[in-house]
């Protein structure tokens, strides 16, 4: 069907927000006052993370992913759990490489990662009218590197439509920080919200944050990357403290 572009790569958006009715997904989970979505929707901002910060974050992803990488077109690096794509499998980065990790990452890298995560959390809280302190980082929160290599396992098939709350349960708010530019660094790979009447796309741009409530009101997919390499980081939040995780530590 019809496709509408919510955010072009060339746009420099202070804040763009589109409210949509909440799905019933939240009803089958415990509700947390002051956090569980009552207002649902999706937003895009280029005003929270600078381009230069996005480039520094991308270099963290590049260094980490240089240690491994999937045989297929989608590789992940999770600094929290240590999960790293390696061939057709995953290894634990921290166990696999041990003390060598300190040659790859620095304390400054992890401080920047934490700072960026906090700013995104604060912006989501502000837009949805909830308390930032009532939100908790949750898993999986991870870097992704996508290219046009054919899928070798189901983990490489990132393009299927899905609902985060259904897939992960703990998710209440999802965010993506893009670390490369659509049509300059890669082709395809746009983010697509799949609505009944039309698709709404977000064109990635380094430093752009796309965020949304995680229920069925935001069914989405990523287009297949046609050429080049697309870097992003998915940062997920829950209202349930039992599903909270800490920031990664070196």
How many separate structural domains? 1
Helix/strand/pairing category:
alpha+beta
The count of β-strands is: 16
Trace the largest sheet across and list its strands.
2-3-13-9-16-8-5
Strand content: 25-35%
Pfam families: 2OG-FeII_Oxy_3
GO molecular function: dioxygenase activity; iron ion binding; L-ascorbic acid binding; oxidoreductase activity, acting on paired donors, with incorporation or reduction of molecular oxygen
Keywords: Dioxygenase, Iron, Metal-binding, Oxidoreductase
Protein name: OGFD3 protein
What order do the helices and strands come in, and which of them pair?
Elements: E1 3-7, E2 16-20, E3 40-45, H1 51-65, E4 69-70, E5 74-77, E6 83-87, E7 89-92, H2 93-97, H3 101-104, H4 107-128, E8 136-146, H5 164-168, E9 173-178, E10 186-188, E11 191-194, E12 199-202, E13 209-213, E14 220-222, E15 225-228, E16 230-238
Parallel strand pairs: 1-12, 4-6
Antiparallel strand pairs: 2-3, 3-13, 5-8, 6-7, 8-16, 9-13, 9-16, 10-15, 11-12, 11-14
Helix pairs in contact: 1-4
Cofactor: L-ascorbate
GO molecular function: dioxygenase activity; iron ion binding; L-ascorbic acid binding; oxidoreductase activity, acting on paired donors, with incorporation or reduction of molecular oxygen
Pfam families: 2OG-FeII_Oxy_3
């Amino acid at each position: 069907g019809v496709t509408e572009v919510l955010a072009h790569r060339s746009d420099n958006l202070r804040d763009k927000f589109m409210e949509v009715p909440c799905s019933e997904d939240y009803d089958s989970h415990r509700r947390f006052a002051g956090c569980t979505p009552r207002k649902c929707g999706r937003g895009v901002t280029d005003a929270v993370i600078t381009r230069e910060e996005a480039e520094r974050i991308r270099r963290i992803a590049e260094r980490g992913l240089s240690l491994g990488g999937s045989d297929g077109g989608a590789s992940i690096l999770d600094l929290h759990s240590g999960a790293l794509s390696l061939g057709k499998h995953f290894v634990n980065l921290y166990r696999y490489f041990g003390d060598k990790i300190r040659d790859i990452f620095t304390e400054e890298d992890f401080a920047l990662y934490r700072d960026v995560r906090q700013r995104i959390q604060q912006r989501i809280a502000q837009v949805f009218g909830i308390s930032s302190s009532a939100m908790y980082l949750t898993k999986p929160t991870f870097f992704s590197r996508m290219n046009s290599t054919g899928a070798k396992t189901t983990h490489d098939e990132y393009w299927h439509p899905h609902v985060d709350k259904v897939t992960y349960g703990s998710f209440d708010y999802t965010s993506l920080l893009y670390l490369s530019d659509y049509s300059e660094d890669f082709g395809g790979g746009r983010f697509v919200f799949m609505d009944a009447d039309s698709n709404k796309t977000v064109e990635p741009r380094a430093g752009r944050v796309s965020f949304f409530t995680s229920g069925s009101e935001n069914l989405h997919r990523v287009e297949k990357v046609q050429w080049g390499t697309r870097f992003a980081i998915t940062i997920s939040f829950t209202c349930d403290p039992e599903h909270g995780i800490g920031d990664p530590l070196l």
